[in-house]
Specification:
Elements: E1 14-15, E2 42-46, H1 53-69, E3 73-77, H2 84-91, E4 99-104, H3 106-113, E5 125-140, H4 149-158, E6 164-167, H5 173-185, E7 190-193, H6 197-205, E8 211-215, H7 216-224, E9 229-233, E10 259-267, H8 272-286, H9 289-297, E11 301-302, H10 307-328
Parallel strand pairs: 2-3, 2-4, 6-7, 6-8
Antiparallel strand pairs: 4-10, 5-8, 5-9, 5-10, 5-11
Length: 333
Amino acid sequence: MKVIPPVRIPRALSALVPALMMTCLPASAFSQGDAGYPSKLIRLIVGQAPGGATDIVARMIAQKLSEQARQSVIVENRTGAAGSIGASFVVKSAPDGYTLLVVSSSYAINPSLYSNLPFDPVKDLAPVSLIAEAPFLLVIHPSLPARSVKELVALAKSKPGALNFASGGNGSSGHLAGELFEHLAGIQLVHVPYKGAGPALVEVMTGQVHMTFGSVLSSLQHVKNQRLRALAVTGAKRSSALPALPTVAEAGIKGYRRTTWYGVLAPAATSPALVTRISDEFRKAVNSDDVRKRILTDGAEPEGSSPKEFREYLASEMKIAQDIVQKAGLKPQ
């Protein structure tokens, strides 16, 4: 099987530009040095389907940024090709700060899985800020006769290849979370990829697929209303949102740890000064009392970082992903 080292989600940011507390400022709080930026609508592009954790995070941030910028900030879902359609759109956009890309940890995985990406993930987009990090929840359809990880593993071993798990697509962070579980548990599962984590979650809720590793941001509410049964959390520690739920490692799968993260990028030609201003505003948003509370309540950890910090983090994640893909035996497409 496949080996994956430690690395969703995730209802899941610090300042587009530090608000200048001067009475002479115009309506926008980010005017000085930016020729009045922002003077029009800002778009946050999401390469995943509505309802997934990345979409949830983007919409949460858009609302807060709208308040801070005193300008409309909207989310556009441009799905397909493992997020590459949305990313390519932003790569080709004007580097003026009005079109930004919100991504999940799948962004760091794609370069190792897709040999012909229509853009260069390192050179064509500039890291702006890490937004949040979140564990996955191992969730199953309530009809499945398993109430613990131990029982799920026993069921899978009794019927090799009979159980399946959904993900947001080949090479998605949820896919690799399942591959890691499969290997460390010594079981055989069938991977069923979907065009986004949202549709994957829906298919588990309707009973079309047995289980998924869903971001806590998108899965938690469905667990609370009993449309899904949560067996474990995939992080290194228990989630504050579901403190009674064990980690996968605590439940008997030693060495298991997998999380997802969310960040924002801009077209590479965006001026460093503007990237820094945008990063500051995202950090301000994620650390605002209301957004921070929502992220923590949903079981994720608010982050916020400088462009330099996020660039270093992203480089590290890409290296880890490359190692994961090689050891998992997943062939680039």
